[in-house]
Amino acid sequence: MFEYQAPANFLQDRVVLVTGAGDGIGKAAAKAYARHGATVILLGRTTSKLEKVYDEIESEGGSQPAIIPLNLETATAHDYEEVATMIDREFGKLDGLLHNASLLGRMGPLFQYDPDTWQQVMQVNVHAEFLMTRALLPLLRAAPSASVIFTSSGVGNKGRAHWGAYSVSKFATEGLMQVLADEEDGLSNVRSNAINPGGTRTNMRALAYPGEDPDTLKTPEDIIPVYLYLMGDDSREVNGQRFNAQ
Ligand code: NDP
Asked: How far is CA 66 from CA 85, 90, 98, 236, in A?
């Protein structure tokens, strides 16, 4: 496991956006950031789930979060510009961005892979990340120390049979992270890194491994230390790297 003891309130006065914040790892990360002082912007497609996370953060005494309902499958470049405008208007800044939302798609061999599912997975897992990063970069560049975290996978740097578009999308995510890291290096205070969560007890994992006993897996809360490390200033000099949460 990645070991890191986050200082109390080390994200005080920081504004952090988390995609896919309504469930699984994104939910755990959003709550952990709020617990350490951040104002968290919860973005996702199911408003009722985002509202639940909102309430949980408030009841734990965290600073009031914001909710942005957005379906990454259908959102256009214009929608991401609107997200940036809204964040600028409401908060005046953005210090961190966790690209966490993803779709698994269907497991199966490439020759049987449904082309529409391929498009859908690439749209949510790759194109949406590009469009969102592009729109939010001016705000991130204006922050004194900004962190962009991408989410990879065990199949994101070594292909595996039957993982189809999901595996390819995670290779692309790592590529996007590396290109961004290299471009911003020396130009701004924006750093970019990727996390491979490893097998974690969520809906997506259960879809991919239906026969597995979930109790044998780490929970989203267990793997949060690396998410905290990369969001705070202790990782200020770290750029273009891939981390294993477990
Ligand atoms: P979950 O399926 O539990 O959560 C994914 C989140 O992404 C959900 O909140 C979901 O929203 C959201 N999301 C999916 N599609 C869209 C969309 N079109 N628009 C907006 N939001 C969307 O997955 P995990 O928590 O397991 O996964 C989190 C990240 O970790 C992913 O990037 C995944 O690839 C990666 N990962 C996970 C591993 C694991 O073992 N769990 C292992 C390796 C990598 P909704 O709740 O509405 O469905």
From this structure: 14, 9, 15, 26
Q: Which domains are seen in the chain, by residue range?
A: 15-244 (3.40.50.720)
Q: How far is Cα 127 from Cα 88, in angstroms, rounded to an integer? A: 23
Active site residue 113: no
Q: Indicate the pLDDT class of residue 14, thresholds 50, 70 and 90.
A: very high
CA 125 to chain CA centroid, nearest Å: 10
Report how far ligand 1's centroid is from the alpha carbon of 149 (Å).
14
In angstroms, the CA 31 to CA 100 distance is 14
> Does the interface ipTM go beyond 0.85?
yes
The pTM of the full predicted model, rounded to 2 decimals, is: 0.99
What is the SS3 assignment for 194? strand
Structure confidence at residue 35 (pLDDT) = 98
Q: Which atom of ligand 1 is nearest to the CA of 73?
A: 18
Strand partners, 106: none
Ligand 1 atom closest to 207 (CA): 2
- pLDDT digit string, tens, across residues 112-128: 999 999 999 999 999 99
